Amino acid sequence: MSDALAPATVRRAMPVPTAALIRRAGTVLLVAALAIVPFVVQGAWTYALGVTIANAIGVLSVSVLVRYGGEVSIGHGFFAAVGAYTVAIMEQRLGVSLLISLPVGVALGVVCGVAFAWPSRNISGIYLAVSTMALALALPELINNMADWTGGYQGLYVAEPAIPGVSMSLQRYYVPLIALIAIAYGLSQLRRSRQGMAMLLARTHPAAADAFGTRRVWARVAVMGISCGIAALAGAALAFSSSTVSPSGFTLWTSIFLLVGSVVSVYGLTLPRALIGGAFLTLIPQLLSASGAWIPVMYGVALLAVILAGHFAPRLGARLRRAGGA
User: Fold this and answer.
1) Each residue of 258-276: pLDDT tens digit?
2) Does residue 53 contact residue 176 with C-beta atoms inside 8 Å?
3) What is the DSSP-derived secondary structure letter of residue 69?
4) Whether 264 contacts 303, CB under 8 Å
5) What is the pTM assigned to this prediction?
6) What is the DSSP-derived secondary structure letter of residue 156?
7) Which of these, 229, 235, 203, lies nearest to 66 by C-alpha position?
8) Among 32, 62, 168, 268, which is least packed, fewest CB within 10 Å?
């Protein structure tokens, strides 16, 4: 066996830590529980959970950009709208099924992300965030000015089933769920891949990345393309699960809430973390709906509590482990 192959062989032979096995088992149990949800609860809750799962995909799209690109976006609602309106327009204007329009929407999201990332490849931080915010601000006007295709203020309906003969209520739940599982699995593979490591290296040590032949510009554009493609998938899943798209669903606040969900999930790229962010965006407002004028206050308190818990929980866990060891 050659020396070049030895490290990879050793890594494959290393036992998986117990904590990692527990996390994997927990994820499998969570997926199994989500798979049987429509047979346990029905009606409004199934609809709300389908929207939650679609929003979880959007949360992942922002977290990917933060984790691999080190940047913050306040305009991912634009790329979500690309996927949503692609699905709606292709169904209403062209009579195309979701099975075809969904990959087209994702591809357009990637193209739009790369088209945005290339001219802005040399700006970062607050300047890039403001640039993405410009997309979110311009989006409603773009939609309304293309009313012949987008339906203008009234929007468009997404009513055709992806698989004929299957209940639409089940499809509106399972299509986002399958998409979320696929994206979470793909991101787990990306973390282990050479390309994923190269993108992380370009973010943390640009000079070292250049020495290994990975240009930071390539990494930034690639991360933005991946992130925007996932955002477009989230928009398409949201359009299908909610059965409608309109300009009011893709405002600046949409992009801000996606960023909030990413913060709540602590920028996690796993399925459970994404669901936490999606649930915070979708279910918390519903649970607080009886609070009336206190809804913004209660929502802010809940957001602060989640952020503080995410910040102090690792420290508290470390102290408990040290105390147990002592």
Assistant:
1) 988 888 888 888 899 999 9
2) yes
3) I
4) yes
5) 0.85
6) E
7) 203
8) 32
